[in-house]
Amino acid sequence: MTPIAHVSSPYTERFGTPRQPPVVEGTLGGVAQRGALILDAAAFACPADMEASLAGLSGFSHVWAVTVLHLNGPGWRPSVRPPRGDRTRRVGVFATRSPHRPNRLGLSALRVVGVDAAAGVVSVEGLDLLDGTPVLDIKPYVAYTDGVGVGGRGGGWRTWRMLWSQIT
After folding, report:
1. From 104's CA, which of 72, 78, 161, 168 has a CA 20 to 30 Å away?
2. How far apart are CA 47 and CA 153, in angstroms?
3. Cα dist. 38→17, 34, 103, 118, 120 in Å?
4. 63-88, pLDDT tens digit by residue?
């Protein structure tokens, strides 16, 4: 796979970068930071294709950025400790949002601040990505299909932990 863009981010090192966009305590500025997804002209047949690929994107409130977590090494563990709550309990890596994964793929929901199709720039807010992170794809966030709600089994170990803390 060839990256189609890269991230322009105020975060230049992993320390101080949010683990999830809404979790900004102890991070740079302590608030959601702005940045951009900058398309790579070489990934498109011609400049017109790059501009056309962004047509209509400004009508969405959020996008999904599919990225390569390029600074992570090849090593990963099948079970990890979740970053919050009971640090003695381990869960499978696929039940977490750990950046250390078999294929180093990342998925970030980012708020669209603006789209400059001619320049190939999508301005975003709520970054949890480092400057220079390769972007494999950008997809619109569609609430009625992407927002599956909370409850039942939807929250996994996170829901179980929240419910348990309410009854103990």
Report:
1. 161
2. 45
3. 19, 13, 23, 11, 6
4. 999 999 887 777 788 888 876 667 77
